[in-house]
């Protein structure tokens, strides 16, 4: 008996070839009806028997497009008014108030690469894409995801593309960014020759010019998916040094794009999980360990390099024609400023500061940088969530509808609550930079418009001086909205609970650089007993002075002095190399500050502890970029992994910092290898943390341990600690799809407040 069903499919089902898939499946099963996008997902009207409907649904779940993700299928039987005689793709429906997911940008697929080389109207066409790959989030202006609501609306399809778009057997059937040499976007290049500005419009000549500039040590500004990048030959130290001067990025590591996996395997250690991430359609930057040193100009003394494979046709073409094996690729902007996106804002600056400037005429609506992933404990963990991930939602157990979370100050990320979905913005940057703060506000406006979002309540960090908090306070005042403030480390902990769907009380170890505490001090290594709505700070790394406030986060030697004064009552035992490097006068000035009763700013920060140890060992005296000292300390320790010694700890003490520092100082007096001391610090700190956790697991009876905070970007510490926790039979949870750093704070903020509001109802 023929029946009619209305089937709604929610999840990542737009921009991934879902409607064409449904169309072909229905035709394969000889079913009649319609499929359409709407603002909540995909809507199917199906006429079939019960058995045919069941087969249809089963095959949808088993055969769905690889990139798609189904979160819910809702089936309702409706009245059969008139019989369908075929199955068609219908016009999109805008009436629903629900909001669907938007696909992230997807790296070019192998079939499109083949078309780039062989399909007549797409040979050498740099914007070749299909239903399963190409731009998505970067070009979407509104939903549902249809061409008129993207920046591809500027380009009228030619007859060939129209035929492909309408042909159910074609891979580009209903591919919204479809284009070819006859009708799509195009590149144009500009280079200065004396006072003349030469323009190149032929794509093949543009590629030849880029290759020539790169091979001669030049700097190329190239517009990509989510913004402009600068490119230089990674093997040319002079070119990389020029790029550092240009960006005013004098020490922070660069990422590289490599020609192929074979070159990566020859130069890097690559696990299977890391290989999977390199080849993923997300094409994130993956942090890998070097086999041999590439160049100090790329990553200084560090032994890790951010590596990615090509994800655009022009990337593949450049490697093929240049013979280069690795290219430094970085956002085209001054260090700390947002990635340039618009041709008008980029052209004047980049032509003056590049040897070649290359733009295209497809508008980037949403600025989106490259994502960064690191494999820890054989799991891929997102450190920077941007291209390939944004704006994929995180599903929360409670409704977060109408919630707007402002995140933190560093590694700023916003989050919008729609239904049970937490929609994280792409990584934005450090709000202390004016241009980044403006980009942060612009991102909020664009996401709100894109998802038709109107906030009903606001959530921010409890730090009153964060620009994100100030913006939230001002918006709450202007719009008359309720504002909730969430303690930084509680938000860190709850972000992990959101990822794993945990609602019960857990034990959380939160370790980072700084978080405003309820006592007005700077927290940064806390053990919390917490659920989603409340927390109890059970213990913390002992407070030490934060001499000079924010200066102490940059000048690591200050924290070395602070710990010495706290433990030994003076600075006379500081290592002589540190004194020689900083100067006795500065050391004496700092000691007077430490003695002063006006010096009341204290910290329990694990980040500052790592700074102190790095400075004591002479590894790093000042952070020229965020977490530089900690990264160098980890690097030093990683080269001495065979050492398994621990500094003896007094287990009668909750935190035995004296034994830790005594052990380090004694080893230094014995001229022990610095790398070995760094390893012993990591192992001894792990033992200290395990001891503290064990103490409070016994006291509370809690068996689930959450690890969170930016310090857990340290692979060595993370894996040592995870191993010890698992060995004791405790359950351990740590971020993977949500950054453990402040990029995950907004998720935790919504997790806390949604639980509070749900509790009230």
Describe it for me?
α21 runs antiparallel to α22. Helices cover 36% and strands 21% of the residues. It has five domains: 3-89, Alpha-Beta Plaits; 102-185, DHBP synthase; 187-360, DHBP synthase, CATH 3.90.870; 392-500 and 740-760, Nucleotidyltransferase, domain 5 (2-Layer Sandwich), CATH 3.30.420.360; 544-733, Nucleotidyltransferase, domain 5, CATH 3.30.420.40. The strands form five sheets. Strands 6, 7, 8, 9, 10, 11, 12, 13, 14, 15, 16 and 17 form a twelve-stranded mixed beta sheet that branches. Strands 18-21-20-19-22-23 form a six-stranded mixed beta sheet, with helices on both faces. The chain is built from 24 helices and 30 strands. The protein starts with a strand and ends with a helix. The longest helix is centred in the last third of the chain and has 27 residues, at 674-700. The mean pLDDT is 94. The protein has 761 residues and is α+β, with helices and mostly antiparallel strands.
Record field, number of beta strands: 30
* CATH fold description of the largest domain: Nucleotidyltransferase, domain 5
| Biggest pleated-sheet summary | 12 strands, mixed
**What is the helical fraction, as a range of percent?**
25-40%
DSSP helix count?
24
Please state the second-level CATH architecture of the largest domain: 2-Layer Sandwich
């Amino acid at each position: 008996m023929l029946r009619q069903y209305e089937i709604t499919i929610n999840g990542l089902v737009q921009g991934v070839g879902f409607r064409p898939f449904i169309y072909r499946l229905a035709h394969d099963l000889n079913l009649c009806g319609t499929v359409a996008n709407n603002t909540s997902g995909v809507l199917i009207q199906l006429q079939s028997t019960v058995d045919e409907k069941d087969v249809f649904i089963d095959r949808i779940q088993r055969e769905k497009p690889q990139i798609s993700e189904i979160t819910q299928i809702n089936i309702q039987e409706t009245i059969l008014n008139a019989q369908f005689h075929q199955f068609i793709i219908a016009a999109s429906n805008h009436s629903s108030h629900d909001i669907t997911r938007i696909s992230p940008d997807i790296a070019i697929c192998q079939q499109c690469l083949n078309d780039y080389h062989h399909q007549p109207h797409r040979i050498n066409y740099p914007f070749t894409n299909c239903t399963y790959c190409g731009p998505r989030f970067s070009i979407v202006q509104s939903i549902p995801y249809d061409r008129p609501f993207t920046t591809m609306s500027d380009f009228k399809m030619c007859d060939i593309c129209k035929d492909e778009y309408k042909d159910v057997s074609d891979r580009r059937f209903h591919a919204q960014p479809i284009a070819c040499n006859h009708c799509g976007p195009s590149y144009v290049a500009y280079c200065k020759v004396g006072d003349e500005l030469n323009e190149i419009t032929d794509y093949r000549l543009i590629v030849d010019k880029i290759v020539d500039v790169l091979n001669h040590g030049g700097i190329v500004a190239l517009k990509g998916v989510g913004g402009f990048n600068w490119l230089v030959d990674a093997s040319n130290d002079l070119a990389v040094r020029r790029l550092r001067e240009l960006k005013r990025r004098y020490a922070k590591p660069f990422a590289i794009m490599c020609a192929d996996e074979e070159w990566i395997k020859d130069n890097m250690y690559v696990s299977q999980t890391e290989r999977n991430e390199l080849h993923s359609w997300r094409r994130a930057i993956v942090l890998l360990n070097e086999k041999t040193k590439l160049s100090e100009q790329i990553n200084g003394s560090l032994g890790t390099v951010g590596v990615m494979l090509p994800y655009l046709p022009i990337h593949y073409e450049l490697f093929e024609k240049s013979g280069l094996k690795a290219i430094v690729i970085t956002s085209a902007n001054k260090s700390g400023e947002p990635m340039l996106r618009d041709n008008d804002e980029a052209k004047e600056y980049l032509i003056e500061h590049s040897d070649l400037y290359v733009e295209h005429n497809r508008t980037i609506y949403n600025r989106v940088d490259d994502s960064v992933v690191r494999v820890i404990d054989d799991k891929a963990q997102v450190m920077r969530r941007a291209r390939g991930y944004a704006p994929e939602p995180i599903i929360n157990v409670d409704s977060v509808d109408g919630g707007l979370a402002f995140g933190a100050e560093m590694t700023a990320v916003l989050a919008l609550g729609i239904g049970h979905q937490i929609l994280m913005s792409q990584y934005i940057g450090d709000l202390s930079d004016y241009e980044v703060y403006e980009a942060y506000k612009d991102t909020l406006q664009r996401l709100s418009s894109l998802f038709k979002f109107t906030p009903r309540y606001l959530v921010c960090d409890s730090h009153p001086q964060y620009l994100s908090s100030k913006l939230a306070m001002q918006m709450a005042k202007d719009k008359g909205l309720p504002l909730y403030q969430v303690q930084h480390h509680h938000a860190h902990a709850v972000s992990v609970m959101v990822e794993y769907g945990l609602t019960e009380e857990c034990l959380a170890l939160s370790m980072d650089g700084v978080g405003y505490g309820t006592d007005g001090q700077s927290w940064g290594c806390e053990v919390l007993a917490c659920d989603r709505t409340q927390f109890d700070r059970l213990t913390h790394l002992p407070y030490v002075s934060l001499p000079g406030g924010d200066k102490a986060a940059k000048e690591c030697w200050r924290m070395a002095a602070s710990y010495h004064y706290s433990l030994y009552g003076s600075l006379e035992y500081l290592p002589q190399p540190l004194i020689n490097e900083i100067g006795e006068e500065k050391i004496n000035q700092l000691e007077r500050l430490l003695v002063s009763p006006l010096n009341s700013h204290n910290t329990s920060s694990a980040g500052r502890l790592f700074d102190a140890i790095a400075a004591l060992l002479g590894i790093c005296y000042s952070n020229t970029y965020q977490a530089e000292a900690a990264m160098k300390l980890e690097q030093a320790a990683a080269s001495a992994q065979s050492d398994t010694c621990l500094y003896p700890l007094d287990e009668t003490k909750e935190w035995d910092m004296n034994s830790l520092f005594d052990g380090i100082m004694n080893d230094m007096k014995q001229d022990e290898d610095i790398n070995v001391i760094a390893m012993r610090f990591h192992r001894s700190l792990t033992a200290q943390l395990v001891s503290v956790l064990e103490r409070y697991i016994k006291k509370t009876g809690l068996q689930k341990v959450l690890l969170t905070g930016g310090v857990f970007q340290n692979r060595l510490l993370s894996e040592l600690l995870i191993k010890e926790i698992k060995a004791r039979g405790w359950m351990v949870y740590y971020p993977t799809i949500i950054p453990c750093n402040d990029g995950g704070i907004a998720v935790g903020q919504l997790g806390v407040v949604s639980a509070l509001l749900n509790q009230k109802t």
